[in-house]
Amino acid sequence: MGDILLTLCRYPPEILKRTEFITYSNDPLNPDLSGGVFFHIATKGCEMTMPKMITDINDVKGLSEQEKARLSRVTEKYRFYANEYYLSLIDWDDPDDPVRRIIIPHLDELDSWGSMDPSCEHLYTVAPSIEHKYTQTALILSTGACGGVCRFCFRKRIFQNGNKDISDDLSGALEYIRSNNSINNVLITGGDALMLPKRKLRWLVSELRKIDHVNIIRLGSRLPAFNPFRITEDEEFLDIIRDYSGPKKRIYVVSHYNHPNELTDIAYQCITKLLDAGAVMVNQSPLLAGVNDNPVVIGELFNRLAEAGNTPYYLFQDRPAFGNRHFSVPIEVGYDMFEEAKSYMSGLAKRARYVMSHATGKVEVLAKTKRSMIFRYHQAAKASNEGRVMCFDRNPEAVWLDDYLEQLSDNNLEGLGMERTALHR
């Protein structure tokens, strides 16, 4: 509550009189926030601050009663979570609105296609809440809290009752990093790294800064898109960046803007605040059918991000997670889209790579010929695969690397250092 009062004291009395406090407790989606308070400004002509969270599809004002009834079937299986600000970006008169497709449930999610762990993260979990897939990088699943639930989320499993992928106690993760000198950068994610309570985030970052061989700390977050007010209105959070992002060891904030409509004025303010605090901003976006599967849209998004100082980093092939089939774009179609999109981009914007986070590594979609698709390991779980180039016969229906690998014999797979059991969906 003290953090909230410190923020509120910057507002004049006439604003505070129209401030609504929302108390919440025992939130299974955001356990780190249980028992806390949010607030938002309900003043005509004044943008909301700390927008009200919406966890029940029946409270979404833009949906008809019939739609709410239909979609409740989906939310019984996969949680719905949003906030007033993000929902305000939707044009409710457009059934194909891209932000709507990102955040509002769809009956196609009930399709059983896909996997609960499409990148086989369980294979690289070395201690509670920590994965070590690539030699130099550790990934900390720091929290199960998110600012919203993307309908294409590849970690849907963490929102399921009984999931134990994330531990409140991160001491084992820190000890693992301390004892592995090969790790020089750490990605704090979840959930959403910026949904951690500030005290816990400061503690975690400060402990990582005490480890000499950790040079880069990355904070993975959708909050710059979902709820930029969490950053623009919170100087204490920005102080964490100021205190621990130095000239020789920077903090990177990895944002997840997926469509130009998410780049609002307050989103730009958020980017600016983070840059001014000393963060390096990079962005990664999945390629999503019905959202950004258009070369002009990708080009605009990446150009605007580069112009704002939030460098495009990766365009991801959407992972084949449960409920994601309707978001999948065939790889060969995606390749053509990205190549055309690059023709609209500045040199700074087109530094991004089109990749997929496969069980065996981060695989770049490198080139296409009349007969073949060419891939290269940008990062590899096995050192012998690092930088390896792979060439496969084209498959216009392929949406994941497995769709090409399944054409190979077991002997050829063994030559790539892979096992067929690891290539599941």
Description:
- This protein has 425 residues and is α/β, with parallel strands linked by helices.
- Helices cover 28% and strands 21% of the residues.
- It has 15 helices and 16 strands.
- It has helices at 2-8, 13-16, 65-75, 84-87, 98-103, 171-178, 198-209, 223-226, 229-232, 235-244, 265-277, 295-307, 331-342, 402-405, 410-415; strands spanning 19-23, 37-41, 53-54, 82-83, 125-127, 130-134, 137-143, 185-190, 216-220, 251-255, 280-287, 310-317, 353-358, 361-368, 372-380, 389-393.
- A hairpin with a 2-residue loop joins strand 6 (130-134) and strand 7 (137-143).
- The longest helix is centred in the middle third of the chain and has 13 residues, at 265-277.
- The chain is globular.
Report the β-strand fraction as a percent range.
15-25%
Low-confidence stretches: 1-46
Distance from N terminus to C terminus (CA atoms, Å) equals 44 Å
Please identify the structural class as seen in this structure: alpha/beta
Helical content, roughly?
A: 25-40%
